[in-house]
Amino acid sequence: MNKRTLLVLILCCPLLLFSQEYSYTHYDSRDGLGSSTVYCMTQDKQGFLWFGTETGVTRFDGSHFESFTKEEGLPDNDIIQVFADSKGRVWLAPFKKTVCYYYKGVIHNSTNDTLLKNLRIHDNVVQFAEDRAGNILLQEVTRVHLLQTNGQITTLTTNGKKPFSYISKIGGRQAGGFWLMEDGNIYTLEQNRFTLWQTVPYVYDHIHFAFASMVNDKLFYRSAPEQVMAMSLPDRKMVPFASNRKYEVVNSAVIDDSHAASCTLEGAFVYDVNSPDSIQHHLPGVAISNVFKDSEGSWWFTTMGNGVYRLNSSVALNAQVIEKRQTPIPSWLGQAPASKELKQSISTYKLVRKYASSNGKWEDQTPFTWFNHLPIINLITLNDRSMVLGSAFFLQKLTPDLNRLTATIYPMTVKALCAYQNNVIVATDKNVVAVDQNRFEIVDTLLRERATCVFSNDDTLYVGTLNGLYQLLPDKRLINLGEKIKALQGHITAVKEDANQVVWVATAGEGLIGYGNDGVVRQFSRHNGLSSNICRTLFYENGKLWVGTDKGVNRINVMEPWFPIQKYTISDGLSSDIIDVIYVTNKKVFIGTPEGITFFDEEKMTSQSHCDLWFTNITVAGSVYYPDDAPVLIPHAKNNIQFNYVAISYKSSGDIRYRYRLLGLDSTWRETRETLLSYPALPSGDYQLQLQAINKFDVYSQVLTSGFTVEKLLYEKTWFRMLIVLTSMAITSLVMWLIIRRIRKREQEKTSFVKRINELEQLSRKAQMNPHFIFNSLNSIQQYVMDADITGANKFISGFSRLIRQTLDFSSRPEISLEEELDYLANYMEIERTRLENAFSWKVVVDESVKPADYYIPPMILQPFVENSVRHGLRFRRDKNGIITIAVKRDKNHLVCMVEDNGIGRKAAMQFKSVSPINYQSKGLSLTADRIEMFNREHEQKITMHIDDLEDEAKQALGTRVIISFPVI
Questions:
Q1: Per-residue pLDDT tens over the stretch 196-225
Q2: CA 893 – CA 967 distance, rounded (Å)
Q3: Are 68 and 107 in contact (CB under 8 A)?
Q4: What letter does residue 326 receive in the DSSP assignment?
Q5: 627 and 613 Cβ atoms separated by less than 8 Å
Q6: What GO molecular function annotations does the UniProt record carry, in alphabetical order (predicted)?
Q7: Phi then psi for 464, rounded to 5 degrees?
Q8: How many angstroms separate the CA atoms of 306 and 326, rounded?
Q9: Of 12, 35, 267, 720, which has fewest CB within 10 angstroms of its CB?
């Protein structure tokens, strides 16, 4: 064994006295156990542990205790026997002539269960058993009751030949049926018949009458006053054990196929079938009532007054701290150190070395004491086998035989040591220095900063500090690795190198960093398997990296590509989860903690753990349901749902994480450590809760699911939505019908409007020349003919025919140029002037800014006003000085046309009309007004018309003026 590390392990641990002990986890009434007096225990189908106490029965899931008493339905609070069957029922035998069982959240007793109501108990039931068919056998002292799966109850009081005198034990038989032991006779029970299997020597009296146990075809009993026997019933194989009769036996228990226990008032004695000479004594001085092995392989000890204990490991031993060491400043500081303390430390080392060489057994059980008040921080062995010790005040060198000091450097507060080239590298609270191995004096200062650890691989030196990791290359260059790797910037606690030349760096916050090829090749943290991000120490051996953290030990196989991690904690037998130092040699592991040293054989140490997850109950709107009975359809008014659950992993001691998601609401996995999920107001819809537990060892449970539906509100229901859709469709159809109807009506109005426009156009164009004008024109032509005025007739006919052609041409066009309109008016007025024998004259005035050919207006829209001036204004003048003036100008975006005459005025014209009415009444003005109105309906820019009566100061008529303003086209 390497002297250096083992001595560090001993000297760094604050011990004054070693005592070998197992590690236990203790629970009593202060933790929630119903009572500290526990008679019996069992584990049900789901993994819950049940404890029968003097104040009821308590169920335990690893984190929470739940107690049941008479208030919950127990016939009595003293529960002397518990048994879990394959159907999930937990049978309870109180200290009363009755039995009951717990199933799906309800305690069934003789008042609420038909089967138990028909069961007639004559004495206390002291034992239960189940065969592979699911039949239950209840044992009294002198009779048994068989409860068959079909509900039939059979009570047996004889073994077939004589009544039972005293039944010792019963048990289920793996081949079918039951085992029954009466005195030394072992019977099989099948089809209500007993058959003698074998007779064995059996000793009992009023003290040891309970010394027999029968589980899984295994029988453990007292065969003689100083001997106990373990027997395999099917093959009748027996293994004897020596028994110390001086301890009063309370009970016996078959733990598993290889172990059985005697429960005494002075602890439990565990026997190993494979090693008859090895007897483990657990919990000396404690009255043990029963021993039980759970599904994770842990042993549980129930006690008479001390609660229950769980054995964390049967192969890990702890050297516990008896008294914490004080560290006063020694009186000889400043003088040459005495050798007494060093010799006592070396004797400690030799004793531990003797332990390691004796296959894990102390050859000298005499306690020893180390009174050194100045702890050794670190030590190394040099090539000449001499040893260098570092403490909080000095650095010392010892001879190879460890009997004499050769040199001392002080004062010096040593933090870490390592050998590098021909020097000893010393990390102190102020710097890192190199000490020559031969001269033993400081020859160089490598770093002027407080250091925490140093490591050398014979080529490169690594120095860990509070602010990162430094690398000293062979050419003396010092590189701060934290400058390029963020994970190496914090507190460095330890450095080791594996066989692949990967340098592993332990940090106090960033986990474990694997450094190689000038970069991070691997990083471990709490999120990918490491127990904690706070790493305290490292040890490497044969491809395995041991990492000590503040939450236990992690063993990483760094040679495997998937880097499997094995975890060890208090639950596995460690004295503490805070790890100070680790040393491994020949698969023997030594772990130093503030509470002492734990040592175990790596090959024998198993850390099997599994994690089972169950719903305990589901609460809907304040009503609590067993998971199987919870409603699937939840009314919307009661959609306040809470899931209560628990993961069972006793070795995790409650250190369990839960990941969950509620499909239908969110598909993202979330984490919690609570054992309940509450959803007080969910929207309507279908949901599925998915839940999974992760225990302390990163073992995942099965994914637990629970589906439910929050009932839809009235407006969310399908039929209601269909009704809404149909109603909406009907309303939409009605609205569409009304819209279509309105559109059709508008189309009809538009068609009628267009039709009316066309009619007006035709009427207006027809009205351009009324029949009276045509008749008078023809009469004028006739007069020319009668007067033989050929020239005048030809000229008149020529003008008249040109006017007719223009009328026909313009009437087919939507618009004409202003030039064409003025030409048409000039032709019309020339004919009228000729016909009326030059009774009036006319003129056209166009503004210089207006080019008539560039402007367009509706055709023949001015002709009715000119005609009106001729027929009603100028016709009745007595002289021939009448004149019609047509003026055109541009006013911003409008073309303004003015028709003005100096006729008699509209008032006088109305008087002439009443005296001499005209046979043909022209509709030109009214039709033109309608045309203007139709135009204005269809266009944003409007045509405006204004008629003024011209008068002098005496109100005498001077004529009429018509102003029409056209938008510029």
A1: 999 998 776 544 445 788 888 999 988 887
A2: 6
A3: yes
A4: P
A5: no
A6: kinase activity
A7: -95, 135
A8: 32
A9: 720
Bridge partners, residue 253, by sequence: 261
* Total residue length of the chain: 969
- Running DSSP on this structure, what letter comes out for residue 638? G
Query: Would you give the DSSP letter of residue 329?
Result: P
Looking at this protein, which amino acid is placed at residue 159?
Answer: N
pLDDT higher than 60, residue 343: no
- CATH class of the domain comprising 612-712: mainly beta
Pairing relationship of beta strands 267-272 and 275-282 according to DSSP bridges: antiparallel
The answer to whether 66 and 33 are in contact (CB under 8 A) is: no
Q: From the CB of residue 498, how many other CB atoms can be counted at a distance below 10 Å?
A: 18
Among 242, 249, 255, which Cα is nearest to 214's? 255
Start-to-end CA span in the chain (Å):
115
210-311 CATH fold: Neuraminidase (2.120.10)
Sequence-separated (6 or more) residues with CB below 8 Å from residue 884:
829, 840, 841, 842, 843, 866, 869, 870, 874, 899, 900, 901
- Contact between 384 and 440 (Cβ < 8 Å): no
Please provide the DSSP assignment of 503-542 as one string. Answer: EEEEEBSS-EEEEETTEEEEEE-GGGT-S-SBEEEEEEET
Lateral strand order in the sheet of 414-420: 414-420, 423-428, 432-436, 442-447
pTM over 0.70: no
Determine which of 58-62, 351-355, 601-605, 640-644 has the lowest per-residue pLDDT on average.
351-355
Q: pLDDT tens digit string along 711-756?
A: 888 887 888 888 988 998 999 899 999 999 888 888 887 777 776 6
What does CATH list as the number for 768-967? 3.30.565.10
The residue type found at 147 is L
Considering the four listed CATH numbers 2.130.10.10, 2.60.120.200, 1.10.340.30, 2.40.30.10, the one that applies to the domain covering 4-11+323-527 is: 2.130.10.10
156, 150 contact by CB (below 8 A)? no
Contact present, 375 and 391 (Cβ < 8 Å): yes
Q: Which of 414-444 are b and which e, b meaning 16 or more Cβ less than 10 Å from the residue's Cβ?
A: bbbbbbbeebbbbbbeeebbbbebeebebee
Between helices 771-786 and 790-810, what is the axis angle to 10°? 160
Task: Return the structure tokens found at 618.
Answer: 């589901």
